[in-house]
Amino acid sequence: MEKRLSPYGFEYVGYNNLIWTFRREVEGVDQYIAIQKSQWEKSYALNLYVYGMGLPIYRTKELTNDPKYNWDFQSFNSEQDQREVLNKLLDVAEKYGIDKLNELANEKKVMVEPLKPTTQMYKKLYEENAVLMKQFMSRINAADLPEEDILQLLKKELEEIQGEMYEDIQDKLVELASVYGNMLLNKLGGRWEYMKSSGKAGVDIPLFCRCNILVDFIEAWQKGEENLIIKNFNHKCNEVINWVRQCRALYGEDWQPPETKYKIPPL
């Protein structure tokens, strides 16, 4: 990996949580290429991202439109297979990833300073999310709507507050994040979580991570890119669903992740 990436200026950062990470700095922007090993099987995935962008990590499917690269994790069964998989992933990094990282770095240079949730917003989200979701669903008669339609309504509500002052729409952002967070938990399992040390609140989803969904909504509103809400929702769900379905195909429909506090629904 180092031999393939060092000619592009990437240096090995280290290994943590099943991920080997390489980094380079271009005009003050840190760019990362990482190889992630699956926790459950012998397979690797390619991750690309730029520090501080607040965007999803780019993987093979998002980097290419080529059907032969239409995969995320690549399985291996022997040392020879392992080398072939790593080289395939690094081929993608060279052919598509370097250009994407440079594109992301250029985007970051023109980004405005991201707005941050206040401690009051986090506290309201954690304490009142159930009430706020019920309020939203009742207001727009959305109780029986499918998931896709509710996501479109959340997008529409974000569009309607474009151009408003941030201080004037904080309660609205908390309400929308409440709906979004409860949708994720109903679909994937998990729970709301409040971190007293940082004063932040979000959802903790098995097999994914803690999700700061309030930041997702503020970012989408600030950038005027309301589709980020739908994109991020689908990204989070696909990460968990694909993983669980693979494990349940191997170990049975009752499989649950070991050492996790929350049950994952049937999906």
Report the mean per-residue pLDDT as an integer: 88
Give the strand content: 15-25%
Unreliable runs:
none
Our Rg estimate from Cα atoms comes to: 20 Å
- Judged by helices, strands and strand pairing, the structural class is alpha+beta
- In spatial order, strands of the major sheet run 1-2-3-4-5
Helix content: 40-55%
Give a count of the beta strands, DSSP E runs of length 2 or more.
8
What is the string of helix and strand elements?
HEEEEHEHHHHEEEHH
Report how far the terminal alpha carbons are from each other: 36 Å
The biggest beta sheet is recorded as: 5 strands, antiparallel
Q: What best-fitting shape do the alpha-carbon axes yield?
A: globular
The total count of helices amounts to 8
Model description:
With 267 residues, the protein is α+β, with helices and mostly antiparallel strands. Helix content is 48%, strand content 17%. The protein contains eight helices and eight strands. α7 (213-223) packs antiparallel against α8. The longest helix is centred in the middle third of the chain and has 31 residues, at 79-109.
Produce the secondary structure layout.
Layout: H1 2-5, E1 11-16, E2 19-26, E3 29-37, E4 43-50, H2 60-63, E5 74-75, H3 79-109, H4 119-139, H5 147-160, H6 170-188, E6 191-195, E7 200-204, E8 210-211, H7 213-223, H8 227-251
Antiparallel strand pairs: 1-2, 2-3, 3-4, 4-5, 6-7, 7-8
Helix pairs in contact: 4-6, 5-6, 6-7, 6-8, 7-8
Essential attributes:
267 residues; alpha+beta; 5-stranded antiparallel β-sheet; 3-stranded antiparallel β-sheet; 8 helices; 8 strands; globular
